[in-house]
Structure formats: structure tokens, C-alpha cells
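Researcher: Hi, I'm a grad student and pretty new to this. My advisor asked me to get structures for two proteins we've been looking at. I'm not sure of the right format, so I'll just paste the first sequence and hope you can take it from there.
Model: That works fine. Here's the first sequence with its C-alpha cells right after it:
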Amino acid sequence: MREAVYDNYFWQSDLVRLRAWSEEDWEWDYYTNFDTSAARLADYEINLPPTVLNSKKYSERIANLAINNCRIAFAIETLDGIHVGRINILLDDDENGTFGMGLKISSEHRGKGYGTSAMKILLKYGFMEKRLNKYSASVIEGNEGSIKMHKKLGCEQEGVLKQNIYTNGRYYAEIYFGLTKEDYLKIMV
């Protein structure tokens, strides 16, 4: 098989490349599931202890751009091929033209712009290719990295649900962000 040429590739930025999640990516999933603080911030809960079997089954379910609960999962790689994260796009509301995303970057790669760069690729896909009108996200209070990233992407804070998420022995606020296509076009294009 010859080498792919990425000179004019939609799924790539100057920092990361998105590719289909593969069954072989189970190991990344398994080891990142030991990061309890990241699980609390992303999933608003802690998961049961990770197992190799669960990570393999999960990776099999989401591999090859399979639609799983209206989500399509991608691996995030650096341009050098280092697997740094996972991102998915939630396409569950065609009627209203809204979409969401889920993002997880391994701890050693956080704060380097990989997540923001991957989000920009999927925002462009949602708005410019899928004809969607609004991106929405919720972030748990204390997830400063995600809050900062959403603001950097041009999202507006649209509301706060006080004491809405229970984890780690207390209630946390859930902060809602949104970005319309109209605002995206003013900022990103």
C-alpha cells in the first residue's frame, strides 16, 4: 500500500489529523480510563475499573466510523502519527440542526492545542458540510480546560444549571455553551 498524501486533506489542521477509530485503538482507551479526574470532568462520574475486554468491545463498536448512538468517533493524531486523543461528533438532531461533541485528550498531551484543533475540524464539518446550525455543549464546573477551549472557539456561555451534577461527594454546576453557524462564520472562516 502506498503512503497517503495529506497536502489537501479536510480532516487535518496544522496540528492534528483525525482518522477513523480502529479496533486496535483499544489500548489507548484502556490506559486513559485510569485517569479518574479526567473521567469526572468528561463523563461527570467515575467509571468502574477498566478492563481490557471492555476497551476492546468499545473500540470494536465505534471502529471504522460506525454510528454508535448517533455518534461518530475519530482518533486524534499529531501530524507525526502520535495518538493523543479521541473526539466524537453527535449528530442526533437533524430536525433542529444541532450537534454536539465529546473530547478526550490523554493527560500527557493536554494543554498543547490538540483538542481545540480537533474541535475546529469537526465544527467546520458540522457547519459547512452537514448544514447544521448550532453546536451545543455542557461542561461541569471546575473543568477549566474545557471552559477555556469553548471560549477560545467562540462559544458563548448560554446558561448555568446550579448544583445539577453529583460526583465526588457534592453537587456541581453544569455550564452550557453554544455556537451558531452565523457566529462561527464571523469568527472562523
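Researcher: Oh nice, that was easy. Here's the second one.
Model: And its structure:
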Amino acid sequence: MEKTFKISALDGLHARPCTLLVSAATPFKSEATLRYKDRSANLKSIMSVMSQAVPTGAVITISAVGEDEVALMERVVDIFISQGLGEEC
């Protein structure tokens, strides 16, 4: 399962938004990945996500694979919307 988002947070995905996303994904058993351009990051690793240096206006894809992928994706979508990080494309 995957969803695409356009980043609207003024500073892109810096430390605080990355921490929110990683904290949201970590409790789930499914694997979660953030893809930006030609690179991918483990959504459960703060250093991996921050190393992507995703700017405002960027389009990213979040994918989840596993037994609780639907719940994981619902949580990630909730974080994007409730925290003003971006909107689903």
C-alpha cells in the first residue's frame, strides 16, 4: 500500500516533522518506507528520514507492507493532515 504527499510544511521535513512521522510508524509491525526522488528511507529511522532533506513543495511517497499496513498508513495520513505537514496527492 502506498500514498503520495506534497509537503506543505514551511521548513519541509526537518527534525520535528520527521520525529512525528517516525513516532507514528514505529509501533506498527509493517515495514514503512519514505521515497523522495530516487532515494528511499526507512520510515522507522529518524536519521534515515532526516537524511532525505525533503524541502517544502516536494512530492514524496510513503509505502507500507505487512500485516497492519492499513492502520500504519491511516496513522501517517492523520499525522500529515493534523500537523500540517502536507496533503495527499
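Researcher: Is there anything I should tell my advisor about the second?
Model: You could mention this: The helical segments are 15-25, 46-50, 69-82.
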